[in-house]
Each structure stands twice: as structure tokens, then as C-alpha cells.
Design goal:
With about 350 residues, this protein is α/β, with parallel strands linked by helices. The protein has 13 helices and seven strands. A hairpin with a 3-residue loop joins strand 2 and strand 3. The radius of gyration is 21 Å and the shape is globular.
């Protein structure tokens, strides 16, 4: 998927840019803008509920939306003009800056991911040192992903990536992450997951660690929580040391970072699903979006939904699950972890809990 998205980036980058023409949206394009207004409404709601600053701007960065015949840049940065092909400017009811570009023939069938590039050879890419959210339309998503059959389900996937874009767009987070990559102390989420999947001893220990976190969440006393979390830290420290001896790499550096970002993102997603029924879409979406299902509802009380977030599953990032469970502990004990989440970009969730429990 990533390689195919990069081919689109190259296409955007190599074409000559002439004076942009202003166009009026077709009915299909009107639906695109209304879907993004729906996303904006959802974003504002969950921002007010979970993370206040998340609701400040309509969009935290540039979103590139793919239909089957065109791509649309929502909120493009001015400097992207020099990196894209000929585009038109699409009028809309929300005063957003929207560019329309034709699609290359080898474009991605499906994508839902926030990406950025940081190597010098990628300076011509639109996402060079800036996080760009690439997303397929609900129609394309439905063809490729069996769990994205409605506009509501698509919107949850969009919010997950939009939240990551918000995180990456923070200067302290992005600076810290780029520095780690430059110092060769960072690996991406997919690489970290492969280590988990391909190393049985590593994987077995992670399972024990996650069980201890779940038990701590369910514990009825602070003393019991502290004992369980202390056992978690001992297991994790031994695993980190064992990996360092074998691979000469500090695995805890990327693990702590991705736990922090993915764990909080999953908590946002879980709270969004729990309150989704309270979010009212526009009348236009309800009447004109063929993929909007008025009967659709999330049931977050189902055991399968609870386990989706707190139990390990090889199809999901393990550090998302462990991170989510640590966020549960922080939330359970009203630890103000959000106050310094961005300003102390390198501060792991586990260290905040260690401080809270006063573990030496």
C-alpha cells in the first residue's frame, strides 16, 4: 500500500503547475464536502469530550481524498503548489481550500493512513516533514475493507488517522520523532509489529505484560494496582535488556513512543464509539449519502468490542493494546497525563504511571 501511495506522491511532484481554474462541484463532489463537514462535526464533538485542543481547527493538516477518478486536497499547504500537477480549485459551502487533481492510473486501490517523509531525497514529496492524511472514499473503502460498509464506519477510521495527524503535527512530537529516525533509534510501527510476530519469547512476554495491565485496570485497590504494575515493569525491563543484548538496539525507545501515540488514539476511538449516537449528521448526509445507514449503531458493551481494545490480537499493533491499557490506568486514577503529553514528547506512559504509583 505504501509503495502505491508513494507513486501518487511522485505523480503529484513531477508535473508542471499552471494557473488554477475555479470550478463548481458536481453533485458527487458536493457529497464529498458534506462528508468532510460530518467529519468536522465528529472531530469537534470528540475533541470537547476527550482532548480539548483537538477541536481547535477544522483540520490539523492536509487531507488527500481519493475517489475512483480524482483526488481532492482539503486544506493544502501553500508550498504544495510547487509539488503537484495541474489542479483546479473547487468551490464549497465551507470556505475550505480544496484542490482537485486527476488520478494516475496506478494509484492506490485503498488507503487510510497518515504519512510523512523525512529523507533528503523525498524533499519533492507533498508530505516531506509534514503529516498528510491519505484516505479513500467510503465507496472505495467498502470494496476493499469488509468492516467499512457505512459512512459511519468510514468516519471512525478517518478520525483515527485524523487524530494521528493531530499528534504528528505537534512540533515537539514531530521534532522528537524525526531526531530519533535521524539517530537511527526509531523504527516504524509495522517494523515493531514484525518483531513482535516473529520473536516467540518477545511475544510471550508481551502477553504476560498485557495481562498484568488488564488485572491492574480491574483491581479494586491502589495497593493491588501498584503491585501488578511493579511486576509489569520488571517483566518489561528484562525483555528490553534481553533484546538489547541480542540485537544491540534499544527496543523500548520506539515502543514507548508508539504506545503513547497509538494508546491515546485508541482511547479516543473507544470514547467516540461509546458516544457516537449523540452526534447528529447534517440533513444533507442523511438524505443524500447512499452509504449513510440510519439504523447503524456501535454497541460498545459487547464483549467483543471491549476485547478489541484491551486484548492482544496479531492483526492489531500490540503496542496499541498495551498503550490503551496504560491509558486506562491513567484515566482510572485521574492522572493529568494530557498536560505534558506534547511538551514532554519523550515521556512514556509507563513512566507517568511509575511516578504516580511512587515505584522506585
Amino acid at each position: 500500500m505504501k509503495l502505491r501511495v508513494l507513486s501518487v506522491l511522485l505523480f503529484f511532484a513531477v508535473c508542471f503547475q499552471a494557473q488554477a481554474q475555479i470550478i463548481k462541484p458536481s453533485p458527487e463532489e458536493k457529497l464529498i464536502t458534506e462528508r468532510f463537514e460530518y467529519i468536522r462535526i465528529i472531530k469537534k464533538y470528540i475533541g470537547n469530550l476527550f482532548w480539548k485542543n483537538f477541536s481547535n481547527n477544522d483540520f490539523p493538516g492536509t487531507v488527500v481524498y481519493f475517489s475512483d477518478s480524482a483526488s481532492y486536497f482539503i486544506n493544502p499547504l501553500p508550498e504544495m503548489k510547487e509539488k503537484v500537477s495541474k489542479y483546479t480549485i473547487m468551490e464549497n459551502d465551507y470556505d475550505w481550500n480544496i484542490w482537485k487533481l486527476r488520478m494516475p492510473l496506478d494509484s492506490a486501490v485503498f488507503v487510510m493512513e497518515t504519512q510523512f517523509q523525512f529523507t533528503p531525497k523525498s524533499k519533492s514529496y507533498i508530505n516531506y516533514k509534514t503529516p498528510v492524511l491519505f484516505c479513500s472514499s467510503p465507496e472505495l473503502s467498502r470494496k476493499e475493507k469488509e468492516k467499512l460498509n457505512t459512512t459511519q464506519e468510514w468516519s471512525i477510521a478517518m478520525m483515527h488517522e485524523l487524530y494521528h495527524q493531530y499528534q504528528y503535527s505537534n512540533e515537539a512530537i514531530l521534532t522528537y520523532m524525526l531526531r530519533l529516525y535521524e539517530e537511527k533509534k526509531m523504527i516504524d510501527m509495522d517494523s515493531l509489529q514484525r518483531i513482535y510476530l516473529n520473536n516467540q519469547a518477545f511475544r510471550d512476554t508481551i502477553k504476560l505484560e498485557n495481562e498484568l495491565l488488564k488485572q491492574a485496570v480491574a483491581a479494586s485497590s491502589l495497593e493491588e494496582e501498584k503491585k501488578l504494575f511493579s511486576r509489569f515493569l520488571k517483566l518489561r525491563t528484562k525483555r528490553d535488556i534481553d533484546y538489547l543484548k541480542k540485537k544491540k538496539f534499544y527496543i523500548n525507545t520506539p515502543e514507548n513512543f508508539w504506545e503513547k501515540l497509538e494508546g491515546t488514539c485508541l482511547m479516543m476511538e473507544k470514547q467516540l464509539k461509546e458516544n457516537f449516537r449523540n452526534i447528529q449528521p447534517s440533513e444533507y448526509i442523511m438524505k443524500n449519502d447512499p452509504m449513510y445507514d440510519p439504523s447503524f449503531a456501535f454497541n460498545e458493551q459487547e464483549l467483543s468490542e471491549i476485547q478489541f481494545y484491551n486484548q492482544l490480537d496479531d492483526s492489531k499493533f500490540y503496542f496499541g493494546t498495551t498503550g490503551y491499557n496504560m491509558v486506562q490506568l491513567l484515566e482510572k486514577n485521574n492522572v493529568p497525563y494530557k498536560d505534558n503529553f506534547f511538551s514532554y514528547a519523550s515521556l512514556p506512559l509507563e513512566l507517568q504511571l511509575k511516578y504516580f504509583y511512587k515505584i522506585k
